[in-house]
Amino acid sequence: MNTSNSDVEDLEPRSVVDDVVAQMRDLISERGLTVGDQLPTEKELCEIFGASRNTVREAMRILKAYGVVKVRPKVGATIVDNRMSSAMDMFSFNVMDISRDTFSDIQGFRCLLEVSSVEEIFDSITDEDIADLREINAKLLKTGGVERAAEQDFLFHTRLIRVLRNKAILDVYGLMKPVILKIIQKGKTRHTFENNTYHEHEAVIDAIVARDRIAYQYRMKTHLEAGYAHFSETSPFAENSK
Amino acid sequence: MNTSNSDVEDLEPRSVVDDVVAQMRDLISERGLTVGDQLPTEKELCEIFGASRNTVREAMRILKAYGVVKVRPKVGATIVDNRMSSAMDMFSFNVMDISRDTFSDIQGFRCLLEVSSVEEIFDSITDEDIADLREINAKLLKTGGVERAAEQDFLFHTRLIRVLRNKAILDVYGLMKPVILKIIQKGKTRHTFENNTYHEHEAVIDAIVARDRIAYQYRMKTHLEAGYAHFSETSPFAENSK
DNA sequence: TTAACCCTATTTGTCCAACAAGAAGCTGTC
DNA sequence: GACAGCTTCTTGTTGGACAAATAGGGTTAA
Fold this sequence. Notes:
Two copies of one chain form a homodimer.
Chain A: H1 16-30, H2 42-49, H3 53-66, E1 69-72, E2 76-79, H4 83-90, H5 100-115, H6 118-124, H7 127-142, H8 146-162, H9 167-175, H10 177-190, H11 194-209, H12 213-228
The structure holds a DNA duplex.
């Protein structure tokens, strides 16, 4: 019923910094500022908001963390939009012991993106896409080390997503990269060999070339679930929390 | 070829604050800290990192902006994981004039999530889900005002996504809320009436109840594209940048 | 011994002042 | 008019100060 954006626990009085952030958002909105425009200097912002420079700076740090402004020393702050990149930075913190539920969810998401989107992929894919996929997959055989192989594996799936020519989906896929990498790594360290992955990928590509909808969905689903099978029973990252 | 995470323009020497952020990430990782654990006090962090308190505070602001820590005054900082919520805060800034490409991408994403996921929806949906959907849709008729109606419309689609029982997908859908709302609003201000939307939603629900895969996909796709049709020719939000 | 109370130290939030380094703009000279 | 040099401005960082409120310890009373 409660459709408020943030959680209900807003009993805490908002700090001055939070207030300045809100005022800055309003200021950007009121002045119709957009990407490339310059923000007032810190001193001016101090006068506008009636806050000290430290407070303004902390607020500015938040905007920078959001990827909304870019500050060049001794020059000033300009509005940008690197929010997707910033979102990826957010997930560079391994603060959460990734639960099995999260893994399930991400894996389900991948299935939706890569398996259920057959039609769109078949519609959009070009010979160049297929050549790229084969090239990336070929490198998988020559890649040593679990982490490198996982990166290459992820690269293959990213390239497949790229076929959809949809930046939003690509960004979201990039957002899930850390978790996907762990899923892949876990699969590889268990018993799956690069050879295995390579042949599964090839089979997927073959199905695409043949425009065999059923085969594609079956092979991709099997491939994804093979990497995920190891999470089914055991708690995935118990060894992480020492 | 370049698979670096951030852009190439990292010539700028990292500031001390960025350095402290990185060190905090390492500290969290090394000590195996996880959700619920306490971080050292600001003074201790100053000594650990050899930085001044203001610098440490600015770094802490970044972590707070990321939704990685929660600071309670006079108590300290504890590790949390509100990154998805923080991501939504990020997108509360209307700094970018949303391009038609972005609209296209988001709309395509919605199609993938809501249309292509028929099988999963049909598999998972319960009578309670359907009752909720009908109830939400019924409120659409009694909701006045474009913005309120758009919210209610969005609520309907969110509830449908919730059927998938996948938090990752739900979070991503929430992430796209601002853009989706604008798409819906634009559609409504043109010529679509609440009545229209209501009946389209009802038709979708009926298709679900009948487990009619073809009808569902057709109706949902038509419904989504109807709202989006107005963006096809004209530049969507030229009037926004005054 | 236990419970209640009070006091002190601690911790975060905010502010002020200062300096360094470098960019931008102005000025004077040729 | 063009260029060199200077001044001013702006951000990055540091240190210190105070307020407010909590946590914890010590004291006292039952």
